């Protein structure tokens, strides 16, 4: 099973990826949170460059993800990425945020199949490195997907990552596994499953339902249970010491990156990792109101001292807890 880390804007940047690999072992593949390509003729900004390549050379497991509906900009950015040493570039066709979709980007691009067809024709022809796609099924009806899948199947994609929900599903409801199965059966390129893989049981159920599925992308599941990838390979569950070590690396890394107060960033992480604990409500209560660094350090230390880990760390949807 090839395991990858989902791109999650604001969370799975280079600091998270490096700390996670150090504490829990590297996954097979990583995808950068989406980046907007620079204008044709310009370079990537400093922030994007640091995100893509914080060291001397790019991580060979990292695939940069672009968010655009402009084929010229995509090809231009792909050329820059190829020069930096990347071997693949990914297109975001899944982002459901209104600011993105209202401009016809992310999952919004799925509402314009002709435009998408022309876009893929150009970028797969002109990009110097292979192009992969991360997609939802359509905007409002699963019937839209047949046409969209027909389009994908006409191009030499490096990989198709399917999050089998519609734009209008947001993150609600149950992923539509049938559409994933149809993709596996039809696609002439590798297909990756993504969506609601929160526990070993979830991964096992997917493997049972689709014995041919060989690639899984983990998102919120790995935020709540950072050892999920290791466990899928037969390794042990997360320990409290490991979690604290991971926390410390993240906090230091974010403070360095931001040059100051990284409490907000850490709170975003806690909003997921609370589910690693037996009593997520009390963990979240301890952390959520803290603003200043000193208060934060005390609160986090209290959680690691008193908190007990759940029998199985597993993400649960927001809303079910205070
Ligand atoms: C906070 C957050 C940020 C995300 N940012 C991105 C992104 O930059 N690019 C992308 O393709 N998907 C993004 N996603 C979607 C995830 O990659 C993934 O498809 C989604 O969370 C479903 O997988 P999961 O159920 O394993 O979490 C984001 C999701 C979340 C929760």
UniProtKB/TrEMBL annotation:
Query: Could you say which EC number(s) this protein's record lists?
Result: 1.3.1.-
Transit peptide as UniProt keyword:
no
Work out whether the entry's keyword set contains S-adenosyl-L-methionine. Answer: no
Cross-referenced Gene3D superfamilies, in alphabetical order?
Answer: Aldolase class I
Q: Which residues bind FMN?
A: 65, 134, 163, 219-220
Q: What PANTHER family does this protein's entry cite?
A: TRNA-DIHYDROURIDINE(47) SYNTHASE [NAD(P)(+)]-LIKE (PTHR45846:SF1)
Name the needed cofactors: FMN
| Top-level taxon in the UniProt lineage | Bacteria
**Which UniProt keyword terms apply here?**
Flavoprotein, FMN, NADP, Nucleotide-binding, Oxidoreductase, tRNA processing
Q: What does this protein do?
A: Catalyzes the synthesis of 5,6-dihydrouridine (D), a modified base found in the D-loop of most tRNAs, via the reduction of the C5-C6 double bond in target uridines.
InterPro entries registered for this protein in UniProt: Aldolase_TIM, DUS-like_FMN-bd, DUS_fam, tRNA_hU_synthase_CS
List, in alphabetical order, the Gene Ontology terms for molecular function in this entry. flavin adenine dinucleotide binding; RNA binding; tRNA dihydrouridine synthase activity
Tell me which species this is from: Olsenella porci
The record, for SUPFAM superfamilies, names: FMN-linked oxidoreductases
**Pfam families referenced in this protein's UniProt entry, alphabetically:** Dus (PF01207)
The protein depicted here goes by the name tRNA-dihydrouridine synthase
The DUS-like FMN-binding domain covers 5-229
């Amino acid at each position: 099973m090839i395991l990858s880390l989902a791109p999650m804007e604001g969370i799975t940047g280079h600091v998270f990826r490096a700390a996670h690999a150090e504490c829990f072992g590297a996954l097979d593949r990583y995808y950068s949170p989406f980046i907007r390509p620079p204008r044709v003729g310009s370079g990537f900004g400093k922030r994007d460059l640091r995100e893509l390549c914080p060291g001397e050379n790019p991580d060979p497991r990292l695939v940069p993800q672009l968010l655009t509906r402009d084929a010229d900009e995509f090809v231009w950015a792909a050329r820059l990425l190829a020069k930096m040493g990347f071997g693949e570039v990914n297109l975001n066709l899944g982002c459901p945020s209104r600011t993105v979709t209202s401009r016809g980007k992310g999952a919004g691009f799925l509402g314009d199949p002709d435009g998408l067809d022309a876009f893929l024709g150009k970028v797969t022809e002109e990009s110097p490195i292979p192009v992969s796609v991360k997609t939802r099924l359509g905007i409002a009806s699963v019937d839209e997907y047949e046409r969209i899948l027909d389009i994908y199947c006409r191009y030499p994609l490096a990989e198709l990552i399917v999050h089998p929900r519609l734009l209008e599903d947001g993150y609600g409801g149950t992923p539509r596994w049938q559409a994933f199965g149809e993709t596996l059966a039809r696609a002439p390129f590798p297909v990756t499953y993504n969506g609601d893989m929160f526990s070993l049981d979830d991964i096992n159920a997917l493997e049972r339902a689709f014995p041919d599925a060989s690639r899984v992308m983990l998102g919120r599941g790995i935020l709540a249970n950072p050892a999920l990838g290791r466990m899928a390979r037969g390794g042990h569950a997360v320990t409290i010491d490991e979690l604290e070590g991971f926390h410390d690396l993240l906090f230091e890394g974010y403070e360095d990156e931001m040059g100051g107060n990284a409490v907000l960033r850490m709170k975003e992480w806690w909003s997921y990792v609370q589910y690693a604990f037996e009593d997520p409500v009390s963990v979240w209560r301890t952390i959520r109101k803290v603003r200043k660094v000193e208060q934060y350090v005390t609160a986090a230390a209290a959680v690691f001292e008193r908190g007990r880990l759940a029998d199985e760390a597993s993400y649960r949807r927001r809303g079910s807890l205070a």
